[in-house]
Amino acid sequence: MTRSPKRALVTGGSAGLGAAAVSLLQAGGYEVVVLDKDSPAASENPVKHISCDLASRPELDAALPELIASGPYGLIFLNAGINATGHFESIEAQAHIDVIRINAEAPMVIFARLLEAGAMRRGAAAVFVSSLSHFTGYPGAASYAASKDALAIYAKSMRRHAKSRGVSLTVAFPGPLRTGHAERHAPKGADASKPMDPAEAARLILADALAGRKSSIPGSANRTFAVLGRIAPKPVTALMRRLIYSRL
């Protein structure tokens, strides 16, 4: 009897961390479905692309039936995210709304619907990509920090229910990544060589997810930062203010 192929879903899989995860999953023998408003780059191993602007709830609701029918999935990588940086009151209200919808609402809705529809295999792994900002304040990107914190708390709250369906749940907390989107939102004078290579971050996160770990903080420097954020939140937030907010 021929076994059905392994299948993975990656949101925001056309660039950055998502694209890196797609490449690694394909190398691991997965057929990959990408949910993204942008088309993935052409490659020798094409993916199934479902076009959707996650800032639009009507578009997401319209895409869900095809997303469910494209399963069942052995792994989902809920990665799509955007940022909005600057002084809070100077950022347009719609930008704040889009950040919350893409970073928090969309992955919550997708995971709940896939689980409800039985579109995840028993033994599947789900990855929620939060942010290192979960461990400290993020002056200059308050909506982003709020959305990623909400996602982390949602994922932790869903862990027991997911386990009852045979699905392990990992929350990933990557730090700054070397991506075009991150570069556009970096403060003036930021060293573009310091952020982590998204391919390395994806490798570490997927390894943790497939091992069934509850959380993943890729990179020793990021793990150190997370510890400092827990034990000395005020000084770390003050440092973030100097490094980011004061330079925007």
Automatic annotation (TrEMBL):
Q: What Pfam families does the annotation carry?
A: adh_short
| InterPro entries, A to Z | NAD(P)-bd_dom_sf, Sc_DH/Rdtase_CS, SDR_fam
Kindly state one GO CC term assigned in the UniProt record: membrane
TM ranges are: none
Q: Which UniProt keywords apply?
A: Oxidoreductase
CDD domains documented for this protein: SDR_c (cd05233)
Q: What highest taxon heads this organism's lineage? A: Bacteria
Gene Ontology molecular function:
oxidoreductase activity
Family stated for the protein in its record: Belongs to the short-chain dehydrogenases/reductases (SDR) family.
> What protein name does the entry list?
Short-subunit dehydrogenase
Q: Which organism is it from?
A: Hoeflea halophila
